[in-house]
Amino acid sequence: MNNNRNIQNDVNLAEVDLNHSIPEEETKRQYYFMAKAARYVAELEQKLGHKPTCCVTTFGCQMNARDSEKLVGILEKVGYELIEDENADFVIYNTCTVRDNANQRVYGRLGVLNGFKRKKPHMKIALCGCMMQEPTVIEKIKTSYRFVDLIFGTHNIFKFAELLVATFENEGLVIDIWKDTDQIVEDLPIERKYPFKSGINIMFGCNNFCSYCIVPYVRGRERSRAPKDIIREIERLVADGVVEIMLLGQNVNSYGKNLKEPISFAQLLQEIEKIEGLQRIRFMTSHPKDLSEELIQVMKHSKKICRHLHLPLQSGSTRILTSMNRRYTKEQYVELAERIRTEIPDIAITTDIIVGFPGETAEDVEETIDVIRRVKYDNAFTFIYSKRTGTPAAAMDNQVPEAQVKVGFDKVLKTVQDTAREQVSRYQGQIMDALVEEVNENDNSLVTGRLSNNTLVHFPGDASLVGKIVNVSLDECHGFYYMGHMV
Ligand code: 5AD
Ligand code: SF4
Question: pTM for the full model?
Fold first, then answer.
């Protein structure tokens, strides 16, 4: 699966002098360790009689998906072959801890990995990502999952090559978790999953401390990448065939505020818009409290920014929003959404909703349903509140009984489905451009494309269309997607 998408790895590892002292500059230091790891992987290849295989499994959000591309970039660079099968020579789980069910899935699957490792003792198992930033998780792995070889967290992922070397040089568990960092290490290898689209980190961490959310504790304080580094990365990606980018951050609307030379997110978008060859710009996630009029105007006049805004609501009750520390009211949110719809009528608005936050009553749920009906989301991710140890909400004494949560959740879900169906279907019969992403998994006479507004459309076509932007007639709306044909 190595198809030359690893565009930033122009360092030839064979030329790195391992007799030289370890470089101090971080990027050079990591290439030194990649060169070292490559020697160990080559030895392993000799022993096994085949190229050692690796498998990277991602849980959670698009940030994690992007981090996994960095892990794959390094693993391929040092000589592993990437496979989909977890019965590989090196397996890494990039974990998520935003809700407890993500944690439970990791524990369940670790048991299966142990079965593989018993038959293949040289196998290495690594864990990284948000879940590893929680001390209770580390304790549990140390006592109950002793077959794990490497654990690291979110702040030192750039050190992966160095830690990989440590697993070859040490018996037992290698563990390196940092509490926080202000470092951003540029120019390490990245292996993209798709040749034609890519995520790009513009900032890391979150300073908002919504009372239910563990992200600020596991991803640390907000820090923005320098605009020139972002632009340079996008220019390289475009030169390499990328037509659509997704700018990633927990709260993109506060991008750039803490840089030495402050710049707004809207200004960054205008700079990115100028990049020739780039056709589509997406971003995620927006916090309603920080979404500026400047951004609405830039989106409105842009030719490249997609007609999609993900604007997490979380709750429609001002009382609950206050307790969640979201820092906007129901009215402010609805007013913002209406303003966006007036300025950009063809925009799709999607959202995240939590049901069952401590103290939430049936009336609060009705307020949420009222917002869904008024804003008319094109799609909404609805979550049952999950208690995260260490967050302020976990200590609130009015946790909602499960049965009551279920009733509210079903009601919210039904409203979302009804309004989304109506909203998505308003384009039936129109012709729109779609970026073809893949041959349809269930029917290989069809391909799947993504509209600017993020809705999917399936239509007759073949693999030669993948990565191209084509005009498609939206013939039939099926709830959240369309069936169509190319025109
Ligand atoms: N319980 C349920 N959902 C949560 N989210 C974040 N924390 C929790 C939690 N403790 C949801 C929010 C956020 C999305 C990424 O995950 O809706 O926007
Ligand atoms: Fe969590 Fe709120 Fe930050 Fe989003 S903005 S990551 S919900 S704390």
Answer: 0.93
